[in-house]
Protein 1
Amino acid sequence: MFDLKKNIKAETVDKAIKHLAENPDAKLIAGGTDVLIKLRQGKSEYCELVDIHDIDELKFIRIDDDKSIVIGSGMVFSKIIESDIIKKHIPMLCEAAESLGGPQVRNMATIGGNICNGVTSADSASSLFTLNAILILKGEDGTREIPISDFYLGPGRVDLKKCEVLTAFKITHDNYQGYFGHYYKYAMRDAMDIATIGCAVCLKTKNGILKDYRIAYGVAGPVPMRCRETEKTVINKKVSKDLLDEIAKTVEKDVNPRTSWRASREFRINIIKELSKRATKKALKRAGEKF
Amino acid sequence: MAVGKLVNRVDAVAKVTGRAEYTDDFYRPDMLVAKYFRSSIAHGRVKEINVEKARKLPGVEAIFTYEQVPRIKFATAGHPFSMDPDHKDVADRLLLTRNIRFMGDEIAIVVAEDEIVANKALKLIEVSYEEYKPLIHPDDILKQGAREIHQGSSNIVGEHRYECGGKVDDALKGADYVIKGEYVTPMVQHCHIENHISFAYMDDLDRIVIVSSTQIPHIARRIVGEALDIPLSRVRVIKPFMGGGFGNKQDVVLEPMVAFLTLKLDGRAVQINLSREECMTGTRTRHPFHVQVKTGFLKDGTMVARKMDVLSVTGGYASHGHSVAAAGGSKSSFLYPRMAIEYHARTIYANIPVAGAMRAYGSPQVIYALECATEDAARFIGMDPIEFRLKNIVRQGDVAQVTGKEILSCGLSQCLLKGKELIHWDRKKKEYEKYKTGPVRRGLGVACFSYASGTYPVCVEVAGVRLVLNQDGTVHVQVGATEIGQGSDTVVAQMVAETLGFPFENVRVVQAQDTDVSPFDTGAYASRQAYVVSNAVFRAATSLREKILDYACLMTGEKHGKFDIVEENIVSADSGKFVLTMKELAVDSFYHKERGGQLTSEVSHKTTTNAPVFGCTFVDVLVDIPLCKVKINKIVNVHDSGVILNPVQAGGQVHGGVSMGIGAALSEELLIDPETGYIFNNNLLDYKVPTFIDLPEINHEFVETFEPTSGYGNKSLGEPPVITPPPAIRNAVLDATGVSINTLPMSPHKLFALFKKNGLMDPKGKADV
């Protein structure tokens, strides 16, 4: 039983924005796989909800004229896994989606909710970071776009303004064309678990040279993060086993995991280093690199 | 012939179609719900409690605190009543308490119209504590002058020592080698699918009806009577379908409270339905054990002496108390019966959640220590672990040291040989020699166990069964054996069909148990059910068969011995020729105006034997050193459980047990804050039960012996499969990496620390993948 005071079902994004304006204490609910847990824990700030789960205009995946891939925020993970566009152009996002929760959770949880929940362990976040995903938000004053890296403000806090709805993610052509990636989730179990560390790598090679390299982590800091120093250090270097070791070494300086009862900082750093190698190696293989 | 056949569970269709009714499916229109107000500290005393604000909340029907409950201390363990005053369970619990003994202890209870109101009311209760330092580590608990968690207990619940097979100290002196080891097992939880749930109401002025998810309806009835000081006959316990128990429902957790509440509320129905979080810390857990083992052996691999010292931690209340350490010590003693054994155990209180019965009751802890120590001994002299075990294990005809009884059936050697073949031991052993260095290593492990088929002679073993021939020629069975999901109703139906000669489909077991009508049986625990019920069923079915055949003689005027039962008919014993149908016979017995009557048979049988069972686990693992993970490539359990009554159900038991064993080996542990006694992970996200895809393919095999003391040659199987996966996996990881992991679980965190300590983690990070 949930102690729900209000549950307003929104039929369109505009109506959702209107409901939010009229009910200043209300929170958005999409798949409910995070919100309902908080409600069950008795968190009273979630007792008024605006339900956007059934808004059709949030459920799409398409390629625009400028070849950008646009993913509606209401897409559930099982639909992302099945999407031909995602499978063909950004398979690493399928891997991230597959690693999330279990089948029932993936049937309900949306990619928009995964990001707006603001947690560092969100499985889709690190991949979206390496894809330079742009978030499209709609509010009372219209639409705005911001890069995902600017969206996270702190643990559990995102730049979702009052009366705003995240409507879509945009991945521009130059951010996926020619790139190969991999998402490696390390958790205590192979399903129904939160990442101890999640690592996404997205890269481009030419003639055995790493032309572009992006690596992002979940749970390596308070919010999902890119490792910019590592990326700078290795771009334009020759692909080799030594390069993998160099990445593992450099990445340690970029991250800042914490000790909790779930895992120690030292343990997490060990996994962070190891995953950098494994995820990079897999992405390089996909790029056709032999070394 | 129904025994040994592949028949479907009698409740399979009811369950998969959702028609089976569980406790929560029973709706009573006026039912209230009750929620415990639990302590937020682990050790202390309530200074003051104020429930006035909560009481005023609309929808709150009543609130009771420790001040309003009977001052009767009772024991919660689901054991049969013991006539031996020295063998009684420790009565250390009140319905609600002022003295706080673990975090989550029950101080008050709110009764409200629904869960939301009850939860709100809990937040309005004001309490102040006098706090003491939580006693969590054994050193602190046993320290001179430590606060007594229960007054007058010295924090010790029980202690015993036995020595058999000669003087251990002398035998150790005569050994070529003596090795020592210390092994620790953690607090784990049953995680049965259906949480604890009970409700009670009164259907008359003085009769309490309790519907509960319990393994022990008849025992629950007695304990409710004791806790409330009312005659047992005023209490009726009904057990509907159940979603598992694994020992956690071999304890009265909610029944006395719901009975108390309905008594106080004029017989109105009150339900307690624990949340998963409450269930994981507020019911029972498995006792953590600290075990020290000394093993003496000869150069040729003969073990001559074993000394074990066990410290078992029972938490805030005794519950099953010292019985768990005692049972673990005696049931494991059958395994290596030709050496001197000394076993000393102590059970202590602690400010942690209460431990009770859990699948295999002390044996997983003791066998883990014992089979790690055995492995270490074999490795010490460089002997193959299977050879070493074959040299020392029990054989048919050996005399069990603790009981002095001859072991009448034992197929353990065959189990080991079968497992060796199934895992391809010799080939892989050679193949894996090149995987002992580098980041990915491989290894093989084995461990074996002994267990028992009940609790005799420690407790009474009594089983009851009643058979009734229906008017349509089928048979209804009422049995005290408690179906909790393990499949006992199905095997009882098979036994009845076997002896009567009836088709299996014509035997119907009455599913729900009701202490007003079900024959007496103490319940589902100790893997006893199929074994202790077997002789009762055999006697009852034999007697009904005689009555049916006699009645056929009466009807036909033929002499005794002329007839036989084949399927649905009475036939001539000599020619097999059809005489009459069972339906014709039944109708006649019911409705003939002069002769006959309802044909029934009822037996209550006491079992005064306890057949040991045996088995082993073989495992093939891959250890990913940089990621600190163990992957099981293959796991095989081989069991000697006597005659296998139902191969599919038996296989299911093994698969479930092995899964649970893999969880215990690699990931399951209730994590406790050593400072506060807080449990970090009392939910199924953070408590890592393996999911379907975490489990490898599980293989099982049976070596079928015939146990002559059993009605159908069968022995126990319910609990045993859980026992040996953890030591087998530990031994395989040792084989792969050279690192002995002597505390469970072998989680990535533990592997990381131990691999680092042993220099396996490449400091330069060069380990490649």
Protein 2
Amino acid sequence: MKTIVKSFHIKDLQDVGRIEGGAGSGRVRLIFASPGVATNGLFLSALKDLPPDVIVLGCSTAGEIAGAEVRDDSISMADMVFEQTRLKPVSVKINHAAESFKAGQELAAALSGPDLKGVLILSDGLNVNGSQLLEGLNALLDKNIVVTGGLAGDGAAFKSTWVLVDRTPSDGFVTALGFYGKNLIMHHGSQGGWDIFGPERLITRSENNVLFEIDDQPALDLYKKYLGTKASELPASGLLFPIKIWKPGEESNAVVRTILGVNEADHSMTFAGDIPKGYSAQLMRANFDRLIEGAAHAAMNLGAAEPGLSIAVSCVGRKLLLGERTEEEVQAALERMPKGSSQVGFYSYGEISPLVRGGKCHLHNQTMTITFISESGGRDAA
Amino acid sequence: MPHKSKVLQRQLLKLGLNANQAPPDPETWHQFLARVSACYNEADQDRYLLERSLEISSDEMRDRFSKINLLVDQLQLNQSVLQDMLRDVGFEVTMSDLATNIEKRVTGFRCAIFRKIKDGNELEIVAAPGFAQSARVAMTVVATLPEACPCGQAAYYKTPIVYNGDSSHPQHEQLVSMGFESCYAYPVLNASNEVVAVFSLFAEKSLILSQQQSELMKGLGEIVQMAFSHADIKRTLQKEQEGVAARSKMTTLGEMAGGVAHEINNPLFILQGYVDLISTSIEDKNLNAEELLETCQSMSTAIHRIAKIVRTLRNFSRDASEDPLEPTFIEILLADALELCSKRYEGVEIELVQPEGGINEQVLCRPVEIVQVLINLLNNSYDAVKNKSERWIRIEILPSSGRVEIRVTDSGQGIEEKAKGRLFHPFVTTKPAGQGTGLGLSISKKIVEAHSGRLFYNPDHSHTQFVVDLPVYKESA
């Protein structure tokens, strides 16, 4: 497999349509772009200029990653040229978050095949219930198939995200790329670095991924209390306090949820995944060093021995907290990969990855999640 | 420049700046300053949030701790009260005692306890010791409906119900007419979440329970349920014991059936013989008045004999546990027992040695029950020796210092060592499998003890000997 990673400012959108050397059985171009380019004519025509046999997968972001750099208002792009692995892109329309489970099942049905090895998902970031989407997928896919990916972002605005469907930025879609063949090698790693603090709480009123009350008090009021002056920056500032939730008695299976939106009228908060009533909860916060350490651990947990392409999907909440130090985490991750590896990725509204090796995929929040792809029996070059 | 921070190095690198040279132009310099300023601001904000989180979460933890302490205090107080109640009320609690005890703990209230009628939608009053008769009558049966009084509502909704003079309550008028302004009703649920009882507090004034009292009342639910369970267990146990006693009696009757049938058949045979004799005399026209009278007397004797056996049998089989105690001669008791079982011994040539006559001692007893004990001992001896080469049973009556012993000894070689300790336990038998229910001795022991006596096995006798020791009845002067 060959990989070529590029990063360029949105002023240079014409480069999106250019192809550089290397033949192979399949070429995939990953494009992670600043949300604003969706209406840029140059970007759209550049996509159409690409040869028809190039599979294009991409989404809007809350920050673009290329190598050890993080940028806004840019495009990070990576080409993977496979020699033996077969590829199949699929997409499903979602009109409402309630359709998420069904959408996951449709994706799984479209991708299923005897030698399906891995799946990379890029999903709408605001109109999808990520955990339901993955429940639907897991219901039909074999758990040995590695499923990773992320939810598209919209900077810190939380207004509208898009994914590329037939090379067109579209909202309300979930796209996925299936990798088939025994030569594909797909590793994954995911780590947070956030710490719980304060008392254990109880989710007392919620509906799917909308949280109304914690300990019989409005959840939004609790967040505002902790945010203080930064409450005016909700929902973005809500990212600073993700929430860890677990079924009582099963804390080892806890997941972290991050905020997507708030509703002042009913004091509710929308999260990227389900917040079941009756679950225990605790607020979390992080410090810089723990987040960067977390990213390094995510890379160390990959278990990759040969160079390849790292697709880093990191949560927008980490970028918000790390600020000027954001690049330290992507650098820490790249440094721990096999020498000669490349890295591309984006800051997302949710990350997709198994919790443990060989396990079902889950929606994560506030993590650095890495998918490391390579192909056995072929050359890899950055 | 030594000790440059990583962040600073990166910022310089991003802007293409060299730490050892001045920025090439003002714009780049301003960009650099903006990034440094952003770093400072982010650090400040992080610190602000950190300190704020610490302060607010500390307050929350302190608040929780106070609530936990208060809860612990309440629990300890309630536990102490409940323990006192259990100690006062004891295992054999009556509902009335329980209601009275509850009233002591919650002053100003009267307590009523209801039981849920099984397979029905009603509660029936079980105890209301502090209530006037008219109120008790009005509460005899309460429907378990949403529009019922608070007790019925508590059973229907399976949750505590509070009434405090609210005029919109469906039963407000009735409660006021009964003189109540407050009512707290608590359902008692079993392990299957079914209502088994409701206990309630009524007050003539509008009274509010304190939180501690409310918590206590919830804890009392368990004691009320325990009281109901114990009452049920006691009732079941009593029924079982009555059933066991009845079965034992029937078994004994079965054992004696052969002998009893023989006892009745003999005089019947004699009667038949006399009837034939009379018939022949009539046919032969050879009626002799004197002979006929003699024959009739003999027939009458035979009929009385049958009647006596039937009477004894009927006496034995009826429930005598309610019979009054009456002074009875021991000789008569023994005679009644032998009436029913001695004929069995002739069939297998068991020598029966009876006591010599002239024993005038009486015992105060329920005769039927003592006869049952003696029959049980005699039947046991019969079973023990019927197949032995040496076959005898000896009965002795030995008065001594205000008591009398009835000793039943047989030619057996005594009870095996390992069986001795459990002889009087129910369902223990030394008889071969299929024979004996093992109930006789345990029930016999209970009967004798109920008569202030003792039934015991004498281990020091060379043969098998059981002794019934009873107090002698002395007529008061």
